[in-house]
Amino acid sequence: MYVKVMTDEQLETLRKQIAVYSTICEQLVEMHKTLTAQQDLAGGMYCDSMITSSGPRITARQRWTPTPSQLQFLEQIFDQGNGTPSKQKIKEITSQLSQHGQISETNVYNWFQNRRARSKRKQVVESEVETEVDSLNEKKITKSENFLPQQHNQAPSDDHLCFHSPDITTDMHYLREDPLSGKLGVDESYNLYDQADDYGMAG
Amino acid sequence: MYVKVMTDEQLETLRKQIAVYSTICEQLVEMHKTLTAQQDLAGGMYCDSMITSSGPRITARQRWTPTPSQLQFLEQIFDQGNGTPSKQKIKEITSQLSQHGQISETNVYNWFQNRRARSKRKQVVESEVETEVDSLNEKKITKSENFLPQQHNQAPSDDHLCFHSPDITTDMHYLREDPLSGKLGVDESYNLYDQADDYGMAG
DNA sequence: CACCTATGAATGAATG
DNA sequence: CATTCATTCATAGGTG
User: Fold this and answer.
1) Cβ–Cβ contacts within 10 Å for residue A48, how many?
2) Who wins on pLDDT, A179 or B36?
3) Interchain proximity A34–B132, CB inside 8 Å
4) Are residues A48 and A65 in contact, defined by beta-carbon separation less than 8 angstroms?
5) Distance CA A191, CA A26 (A)
């Protein structure tokens, strides 16, 4: 019979790691609950549980994309001038479009919102370009420039956390190197929540 | 010299626990980054753009964003059912929350207004389940599905994970069903296991 | 594969 | 309150 042999030290290390993970998880889960609580009922989230045939797809797309037909239809309505369709209208549109693919009222609603905002902004930008010129030294970021490559990197304070990358492997050595490893004081050393609170102020 | 002896089975259990934790953490961290991204810059100080000194202006916030703590608090109150807090109540809440970051009564007020309106809208949307379309030849999905957000209350069995840990087991399903977390590949996340290698565990 | 843009979605604030 | 607006976030898709 095979057995694995570990020294006290090794076992201790392992134990700590688990403990640390445990704590982190607890806190993260806590945060997750809090932070997503509103998103659940706020978002027009649809849980695409489709694709039961073409593969082990568990997670479907996260964002609706209008099919060409739907888009055409929407554009058509939009061009009819009648601004915001309003709930009743949206229902109609939605059921119409649902014949051409997955869609929800929220999608339609958002589409119109965005469509309008976009076209409006476009005009604003056009007229602003002349006046605003290039003295971007001050404002640097204006409506006309909201396309700048700032992308999804708006987590400036990540460094304050132990986690830099989604690669948990990387995170691990943070854990191991942490002074915490000396003892099992996990409880207080990894309060990500508090940190989150803090780095907000770091600005 | 003392050594601890573990059977393969025991080791395996440990390994799995770590792996599971690792995965959870990975995903939670991911979520954390995502979900707090906004909160951080908001952290409280919006409009730090007024710093006209020669400092490089960090993209300032013009609008308040609740910190996680604040949000939690707000949600809590909101869940207590009492609709829109009275002026007095709002003052209280505001002063409470101001301990967790910049906030004003108006913010609180707006938050409740929006919170209410949006949760209501969601319900309205949810109830729109009856239309003529029942068989979508294209997607084979009933339209009713794309509305229900699949709330966070389901309890799929996690037993197959061999994960007999503390209470976080309960939280597990949060992660597993989250659309955000595309994968939960425990099998490939044995980061800690690598370390185990060093210990001569995986001989 | 990295970067970029277009755009769906989320949400604080404003308006009616 | 109900709706709408404005701004921002995150991601799908295209391109070099």
Assistant:
1) 18
2) B36
3) no
4) no
5) 10
Q: Do B32 and A192 lie within an 8 Å CB cutoff?
A: yes
Q: Which residues contact B4 (CB under 8 A, 6 or more apart)?
A: A5, A6, A7, A8, A11
Interchain contact, A58 vs B189, CB within 8 Å: no
Q: Tens digits of per-residue pLDDT, A35-76?
A: 554 444 333 333 443 333 443 333 445 788 999 989 998 998
Separation in Å, CA B74 to CA A31, A65, A138, A198, B92: 14, 33, 35, 19, 12
What six digits make up the tokens of A194? 């508090």
The answer to whether A51 faces chain B, any CB pair under 8 Å, is: no
CB B142 within 8 A of CB B134: yes
DSSP B58: P
Alpha helices in B84-190 (DSSP H): 87-97, 105-127, 168-177
Q: Which residues of chain B have a CB within 8 Å of the CB of A168? A: 22-23, 25-26, 29, 189, 191
Largest interatomic CA distance in chain B: 76
Query: How many angstroms away from the CA of A97 is the closest CA of chain B?
Result: 10
Q: Model confidence over B127-165: pLDDT tens digits?
A: 544 444 444 344 333 333 333 333 333 333 333 333 334
Helix (H) or strand (E) holding A5: strand A3-7
Find, in chain A, the residue whose alpha carbon is nearest to that of B191.
A169
